[in-house]
Amino acid sequence: MPCTNLPHPEERPSGARLEGRASALPRRPSGWQFIDLAELGRNAGRSYLAALLRITLYPLAAAILLGLAVVLNTVVNHPPPGSLDPIVGIVAQYGLIVVAGLAVLRSIERSHRRPWRSLVAPDLSLDWRRLAIGGGVQFAILAGELALVHELTGWPWRFSIPAALPLFALAVFLIPLQAASEELLFRGYLTQALGRIARSRCLIAAAVGLVFGLLHLNTYGPLTVPYFFLLSLIFSLVSLRDDRLELAIGGHAAMNLFAFGVANATLIGPGIIGTGDGAMPFNWAAIAALVLNGAVFYGVTRLLVRLFCARRSAP
Questions:
Q1: 128-141 pLDDT, tens per residue?
Q2: Which of 208, 257, 216 is nearest to 235 (CA)?
Q3: Which pLDDT tens digit goes with each residue over 56-86?
Q4: Is the dihedral of CA 212, 104, 90, 250 positive or negative?
Q5: CA angle, 60 then 68 then 98, to 5°
Q6: Phi-psi category of 234—alpha, beta or left, where left has phi over 0 and alpha has psi -120 to 50?
Q7: What is the DSSP-derived secondary structure letter of residue 252?
Q8: Comparing C-alpha atoms, which of 141, 191, 153, 174 is closest to residue 296?
Q9: Is the pTM of this model over 0.85?
Q10: Count of CB atoms situated within 10 Å of the CB of 9
């Protein structure tokens, strides 16, 4: 006699069933509750292969479409040479990473059969207070550092609104999405994936940092990889300590927005922050400043979370 009420092996748990599985995960040392959220979904090799293909091919397809759009606009409208470079640069630098983030979300839902919020927190929710704390603390630290540099060097304030205000607004819109996409990909998806094969938080954070650093290549000189490796370690430490990703997302978004705003509002010399030949290479002072930034960010966010965010457990 057939049994018709057995779940199909490919059926995805939903609603209370999935939340019950999340709450059933045993309590572990800090970080493992977050890393082991991968247990909520499928972890077959084909699932990770499909995700890798999406993460690689989606941005590539978007880049091809962007190039075709530029060629078509050039043929039809004959814009002045170089007039499209700023918008193409912004979309390529930030928009393609957002596409990669969308590929991650698609892969989590489609290939791994678990909710995308499992990349964020064990209770499968998004805590806006932590996002605000991460962003606010990072912004305050960077503003303090800039004010200190101004005080020590005597650099004059040269604030002005960028002439290409629509492009500036486009970048301000894309940058938080770009930062969130990187966090979901590296400190979220890659961290949880590596947790399936490595049971050392230090090893996982180091591997994620190495990949994160290498993908930035030599954008800011020979210290680019060490700088971004260290930055990744800081965000991994914060997210694994909190067992959630929101503080890292908020801090990363604030860091990128502040850098872009400072460079393009001419608070400091032009070209000091950017890409290509206009970017100022990192030096050891930048590394030291990042270490100080990370220590303050870790301590202050931890204090504010204790004060304003009650410990949230999975339903």
A1: 999 999 999 999 99
A2: 208
A3: 999 999 999 999 999 998 888 888 887 778 8
A4: negative
A5: 40
A6: alpha
A7: H
A8: 141
A9: yes
A10: 5
